[in-house]
Design goal:
about 400 residues; mainly beta; 4-stranded antiparallel sheet; 2 helices; globular; disordered N terminus; Methylamine Dehydrogenase, Chain H
């Protein structure tokens, strides 16, 4: 608010501003005895006039609390502009947990082009990377995770991109393509850092938790498949881990000691990263499309088509939970009407979320696998990702939309 004026009406000194009396004549300069008394009489008259109520001045005296200005002109008080009140910051959405998962809802949707192949959040949660199954447009697109607004495109692949992964330190984005290459990008600037040549199409990528190793999975010489690893510091190849058919999914354990991958062969293997030995083989009744290790490193979750009809249309999808260290099956959640394309754990590990091609999106408690939440994602779920801080979930549909989810305040 403007500051109030500090000064009241200006007081006019009576003696200085008393107007002349009309018709008054000057006293003679000489020979007039009254001339000597004139100053005295004038002063006395002035004192009487100024002491009368209202006096000869019409200006009201200021209140005692006001400061009386001197007889000179008073300056105009400059108003002080109102203090700007900063807008209240938009509160960050709550993390997805056992208590909040039931409040999940879509807050942004935007188009990509065709069926979404993969999604990945940057470690800081600010960006979402996506790839679609286009036959002509093979760009990787980056979106603002808060608004869904496009940020930039990474162009360089000559065929469909199947897999994406950010490095945990946030500096790199890796992509795996049908064009027989895996590419590593400085995703903030759009610069291509490295292109790795492979013998056939590659479909999955994963960085180790320390960002120092990159794993790429795909076809070797049919029907063989493999996972190749490189040292990020020098881009020297490290290991080649054998599998069959193809490797659609890869996931490191949080401590970096295990790498889970598979499973077009219907198997998911657990390799020890220190020497590349396949310690466990997790057998499934159908092909596996997604693999993830829990935040505590104890459990492996896999998404698959459990049964199909004669035309090879999936009639029942499932999520299977495995003990990472023993390879034993803990639980099978076989209540999806179509292929489960994505499985993720919440940041605190209390919730498992899975989505199937028909759009079924379900959440379970990891303590007893009781269902917590169920809804339909528009357009189906062909890809699923959760931000590192657990505040955002993304689903990619058959086309052309990506949907961003969060816990409603």
């Amino acid at each position: 608010m403007p500051r109030p004026a500090l000064f009241g009406p200006r007081a006019v000194p009576c003696a200085d501003e008393l107007p002349p009396i009309d018709g008054a004549r000057p006293l003679p300069e000489k020979g007039n005895p009254m001339r000597r008394l004139a100053p005295v009489l004038a002063a006395a008259a002035m004192g009487i006039a100024c002491s009368l109520p209202g006096g000869v001045s019409s200006i009201t005296a200021p209140a005692a609390s006001q400061t009386v200005m001197p007889p000179t002109a008073s300056p105009t008080a400059s108003p002080v502009p109102p203090t700007a009140i900063p807008p209240s910051p938009t509160p960050a959405p709550a993390p997805i947990t056992l208590q909040t998962v039931g409040e999940l809802s879509i807050y942004a949707s935007f188009g990509e082009g065709e069926t979404i192949r993969d999604l990945a959040f940057s470690p800081d949660g600010e960006a979402l990377a996506s790839v679609a199954g286009n036959r002509e447009d093979f760009a990787i697109r980056l979106w603002d995770a808060g608004t869904g607004q496009p940020l930039r495109e990474l162009v360089g692949h000559a065929s469909i991109v199947f897999g994406l992964a950010f490095s945990p330190d946030g500096t790199m984005l890796a992509s795996a393509s049908k064009d027989h290459t895996a590419k590593i990008w400085d995703w903030r600037s759009g610069a291509l850092l490295k292109s790795l040549d492979l013998p056939n199409e590659v479909t999955s990528v994963a960085f180790s938790p320390d960002s120092r190793t990159l794993a790429v999975g795909g076809v070797d010489v049919w029907p063989n498949a493999a996972v190749w690893t490189w040292s990020v510091d020098s881009w020297a190849p490290s290991m080649e881990l054998a599998e069959f058919w193809n490797i659609p999914a890869l996931s490191y354990s949080p401590d970096g000691e295990w790498l889970a991958g598979g499973g077009t062969s219907r198997n998911t293997r657990l390799w020890r990263t220190s020497d590349g030995e396949a310690v466990q083989v997790l057998h499934h009744p159908g092909q596996v499309s997604s693999v993830v290790v829990s935040p505590d490193g104890a459990t492996v979750a896999t998404g698959l088509c459990e049964t199909a009809d004669e035309a090879l249309h999936c009639t029942r999808g499932a999520v299977r939970l495995w003990n990472l260290h023993t390879g034993t099956l803990i639980k099978s959640l076989a209540d999806f009407p179509d292929w489960v394309e994505g499985v993720v754990f919440s940041e605190d590990g209390s919730v498992l979320i899975a989505g199937s091609r028909d759009g079924t999106l379900r959440a379970y408690s990891t303590s007893d696998f009781a269902p917590l939440f169920a809804t339909l994602a528009p357009g189906g779920v062909m890809a699923l990702a959760i931000s590192l801080d657990g505040r955002f979930l993304a689903t990619g549909s058959r086309g052309p939309d990506i949907h961003l989810w969060r816990v409603e305040p």
